[in-house]
Amino acid sequence: MRRHIPFFTSTTEQVIEWDHIESITPALYSGPNSKSPTGHPVIRIGGVIVDTRTGEKTSELDVPTYRLIGEPNTVYGLLRFLQENPDQRHLLSDVDSVELLRPPPLLERFRISRSTEPTS
Description:
Elements: E1 2-5, E2 8-11, E3 14-15, E4 21-29, E5 40-51, E6 57-64, H1 72-84, H2 106-116
Antiparallel strand pairs: 1-2, 3-5, 4-5, 5-6
């Protein structure tokens, strides 16, 4: 995760092993001092998380979706799929793994949504 402060950029790297992930859920984050009722969407990963720089352990990691390169629902779906299907994690090591983060073309998404709508 990269945080931008004028004239200063810091990078924090936190590592969580697949076997230590207990939950992956969508959530809203409004900040520790925010009184605003609106929140920013995050993907909350629960488990044993280790900060590689300090060695500190935490129980949750919030991944802000606005910082993701991939579409947030696609990333969330991929994480859930790989958590539930450990035998498929080798897909991330392939050269074509970037295709897993690319959503289907817009026309195909429209077609899929029309086919799942109930008819009256």
